[in-house]
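JOB MANIFEST
job_type = single_chain_structure
chain_count = 1
residues = 200
[input]
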Amino acid sequence: MPSVPVGVARPGGQKASVTVELFLDLCCPYSNKMFKTISEHVAPKYEGEVKFVFHSVAQPWHAQSCYMHEASLAVLDSAGPQKFWDFAGALFCKQEEFFDDMVMDKTRNELYSELAKVAEEVGVAPAEVLNRLQLKPGNAGSAVTQRFKWATKLHRSRGVHVTPTVHLNGLEAGVVGSGWSPEEWQSFLDYHLAEAKHAA
């Protein structure tokens, strides 16, 4: 069992009254769109009021998605939550370079090396990432495999299939869409923050 909560909270929301969980795939264009809206326009406005948590959901029909999420967890393990969020943002910006047709003929190690270079762009040493992605003998995985298993178990146990999926305070918020504007997020969050205040 995990000794700490599964998912990566964006720094600054530890005392927030409202929690928004984002179930995202780093290879999913719709996840990309939502992440950019949240990280660039929404989360900065609600610093300290709303806790945003990133949950890794690797969609198996994009085989390279597993490697992308493994690299993100290696960044988390070596450099902490802020660098994880920075890495996710940088990787989303380069997402098309990791689409199916772009990686079909690349090896696992080639992809790891490219992902480590993305980590370097946000100030994480590539060697730190690659060390954590180094496979153990046999079929035992790497230093991040167990964390990845917990992430996968969590989204499966909560019935998450589509990316992105958003949960508000533990329950799925089916009304939220990847195409939501900052203004739609503001209306949604302001309502729930006001309700949380009244309930306190």
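[summary]
The first strand starts at residue 8 and ends at 9.
The chain has one domain: 8-199.
exit_status = 0
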